[in-house]
């Protein structure tokens, strides 16, 4: 368990340092994560909708 915590701490520290060096604000990082999740949800929903529409279209087509 300790190795996992140390790996997570190291990753968090390195990510934080990279953001500071790159000049990325934490709020921009959070905004990017939220927009990426929203995009993934919309993409998944669109795929399900198109799949249902094509299935219905094929069923109605003789």
What's this entry about, in short?
The chain is mostly helical. It is 90% helix and 0% strand.
Give the terminus-to-terminus CA distance.
61 Å
Strand content: under 5%
Question: Helix proportion of residues, in percent?
Answer: over 70%
Order of helices and strands: HH
> What Rg is obtained from the alpha carbons, in whole angstroms?
21 Å
| Structure summary, number of beta strands | 0
Per the principal axes of the C-alpha atoms, what is the gross shape? elongated
pLDDT under 50 segments (min length 5)? none
Largest sheet entry: none
> What is the SS-derived class?
mainly alpha
Task: Pick out its properties.
single chain; 62 residues; mainly alpha; 90% helix
How would you characterize the overall build of this protein?
By secondary structure, the chain is mainly α. It has a domain at 23-62. It has two helices and no strands. It has helices spanning 2-22, 26-60. It starts with a helix and ends with a helix. The model has no long low-confidence stretch (mean pLDDT 83).
